[in-house]
Amino acid sequence: MNAQKKSLKPSILQKPSKKESKTAATEKKRVITVGLVGNPNCGKTSLYNKLSNSQGSIGNYPRVTVEIQESRIDYKGIEIRIVDLPGIYSLTSTSPEERIGRDYLHSEEADVLLNILDAGNLDRSLFFTTQLLEMGQATVYVLNMIDEAKQKGIHINTKDLASMLNGPVVETNAKLGVGMDKVLDAIIEMADRPHGEVHPIKLPYDSHLEEAINNVQELITKLHPGEMDQHQSRWLSLKLLEGDDELLRREGEHSHLIELVRRARYDLSHSHGESCDSMFADTRYGFIHGLLLEVRTIDKNPEKSMQLTRRIDQIFLHRLLGLPIFVLLMWMMFESTFTLGAYPADWIDQGVRALSAGVGDLMPHGLVRDLIMDGMIMGIGAVVVFLPYILILFFFIAMFSETGYLARTSFLLDRIMHVFGLHGKAFIPLVMGFGCNVPAVMATRTIESPRARLVAVLINPFMSCSQRLPAFILLSGAFFPDNAGRMIFIMYMISIATAMGSAVFLSKVVIKGGKESFVMELPPYRLPTFGSILTHIGSRAYDFVRMVGGVIVVGSITIWFLQQFPRDITYSVNYESSIAQAQAIPDTTQSELAVAELNDQKERERMEKSYLGRIGQSIAPMFSVQGFDWKDSVAIISGIFAKEVVVASYGVLYGQDDGSETGSAGLRSAISQAMTPVTAFALMVFLLLYSPCLSTIAAIKREAGWSWAGFSVLFSLLLAWTLSATIVSVGGMFF
Ligand code: GDP
Ligand code: MG
Which residues have CB under 8 Å from 375's CB, separation 6+? Predict the structure, then answer.
């Protein structure tokens, strides 16, 4: 992916003289910078991907993009730099992620803005447009999702719309890539327009507002002599009156101006009986209403897809049935993941075994052979087997995300949180945690209230990421072979329940504060395309291969080394002579059995006295209640580095036991003899909940600081320990 993060320094008042920079650019290759702006979920990232042939993450899920990404393409000999931005509803909003887009606009870095509109939902999309219009930047309007609009029976007169917005309007379907060339042509045409032709549009504010705007504008002109033209000072005046906190802060040194604005806002709201903000909003909606009456017609028998969405939601979001349906869908998802995944997993397992046998025959005995056979192949093989499961799971998650159901699950969880007097906004980014906690922690930036955001960050690690899945599959396959799918489903239920319980606990006890409300956006249901599903799964597979190539190779080799050394171990028994004695037994079967038993004992003692054994044994006492042994302790420690190493550790640790079976079946049977099912269940719960991995800890630190990152580690360790101990004690009474 050729996406880059960048930091932007907003500088609205020092407008760079664009003409100069442009002529300088034409001498070399011409570069046009295009910023993609619009509401969340209107198809910006889809358009970005289609325009630039890249693969940003798309989802039928508001607020998927939280960082800026950009890429460059060559079109008709001109270099076009395309910048994808997080969605914005309003320029005066305070959510940190909307601020990214706003700062970008203020920086005036883009030569041309691409304002993406949801053609089926123009009333809402255009609100942001009314604010853009007043900025007077060169803008191309994209009527995206034109296919959906047509389905809803909506017709838009693009010619009239273009003349009213004073900029080209292009119809697109970003999902299929229809209209991309027209967009690029319009961008170039717009960039070629002389500066004077691009001017802000005046919205018809009522006379009192106009008067206030003029007063403020006058003072601004006095305070910034020669720095701004008429349009710019009017714009600043509008924004100050509309309550743009960022601009108010920047003008903070002019206490005169701030006071004037404050007074004007106060007077206006008093004389009109409504807040100044809503007076502005009223004008904007009025403008949109009028505009749409002119350019839009809707068929008499409209909104088939909306009707369908409404009807589907009557079932999926039903007061009583909604949750059971969600649980049922989850259950079906895990059952089929497990059943279907078993076949390809078996093929891979056979491949790994064949490879290991081949390598074993080729190489001479020695440390290098052991390293490759027992360290690398065992460790990597143990993990690679789970690739099919992960891909199938992600197929389902991609289906849920693309159809729009995933957004509904947040809504359902939100509804439960209402029972506890909380708003479940924290759950919006949470569902992403099923993939990986790191981006999910970052996605909490969409939450405005710092308190709710902190809660969301802290409960995120309890969402079971896909890297934890292999350990669950291994353990439930070994201990609950007949109910493996169900066990994994239970793990995910525990995962969600813990996240919700912790949210309640944290908001009521640790991070107290007031209540807040918000509107949950529910996108319409959409049929996913083959391509978008494939993109989701493809990027998952890529992540997996990269992870196997990196962290798992390193992890397996480290663990192998730690358990091979030191070499000079003093054994408690003289095995050599005991083995010699056993070999002397006349009965051959008995003799072989005894030798095997002795070899086993020797190997066990060697492992226990290796570095790894010593590390494990020094930790194991902490888990004496649960009954986890030193091997489990090693796996647990390795999982703090990265969750996927847990299974690799087991692969290497049990790979030595020269059982008759090898590969994943061998690992399963070796592990199934190491503990009771109750302990195994407790271990699964522990592995589910204990400390976030290093990358997630780093992400939490980035979003909330070191002390909260530390809190998260301790809190989750404590919770995991207590819960697993409870399971073992309670389970011990019954089994
Ligand atoms: P963003 O939040 O604005 O970046 O929106 P995304 O690009 O993530 O798209 C949101 C959803 O709308 C995804 O499910 C897309 O597949 C879907 N989508 C985007 N463009 C179109 C379109 O033109 N037609 C239809 N039917 N769906 C679209
Ligand atoms: Mg996006």
Answer: 556, 557, 559, 560, 561, 652
CA distance readout (Å), 734 to 247, 629, 726: 65, 22, 13
For 213, 302, 525, the CA distances from 153, given in Å and listed in that order, are 40, 5, 17
Site to probe by mutation for ligand 1, drawn from 41, 45, 46, 68 as the one with most ligand atoms within 8 Å of Cβ, is 46
Element (H, E) at 114: strand 112-118
Give the ligand 1 atom nearest the CA of 41.
Answer: 2
Q: How far apart are CA 428 and CA 440, in angstroms?
A: 9
Three-class SS of residue 210?
A: helix
- Pairing assessment for the beta strands 169-171 and 139-144 based on DSSP bridges: parallel
pLDDT one-digit tens code per residue, 454-481: 888 999 899 988 889 889 989 998 999 8
DSSP 243: T
- Per-residue pLDDT tens digits for 44-68: 999 999 998 876 556 555 555 667 8
According to DSSP, residue 674 is labeled: T
pTM over 0.85, yes/no? no
Q: Looking at residue 62, what DSSP letter applies? A: S
Ligand 2 ion: residues within 5 Å (CB): 44-45, 64-65
Query: Which token pair is 102?
Result: 């706003």
Helices vs. strands in the chain: H and E counts, helices first: 33, 8
Distance 534 CA to ligand 1 centre (A): 15
Supply φ then ψ for residue 255, to 5 degrees: -60, -30
Q: Which two tokens stand for residue 611?
A: 């570095």
Show the domains of the chain with their CATH numbers: 2-197 (3.40.50.300), 207-298 (1.10.287.1770)
| Single-letter amino acid, residue 228 | M
